[in-house]
Design brief:
Blueprint: H1 3-12, E1 17-19, H2 22-31, E2 38-41, H3 47-58, E3 68-71
Parallel strand pairs: 1-2, 2-3
Length: 75
Amino acid sequence: MPDESVLDYAILRQRVVVTLNRRHFVALHASRPDHWGIVVCTFDSNFDGLAVRIHEALLETVGHRNWLLRINRPG
């Protein structure tokens, strides 16, 4: 599915996009100010740790729109 379609789907359903496809979604964030949020992550095989970092970052964005979170693997 094209990245634009993923974002359209999320916007229509008022959902946040979580992706490892950082470059494309950072560009979409800049060009599409109508989204509900985008979380771009570096790959981390410690999925539990990644989920915790995403969760902690999301706690600070409640109630906001059109934001971009960058979640990076530690180290």
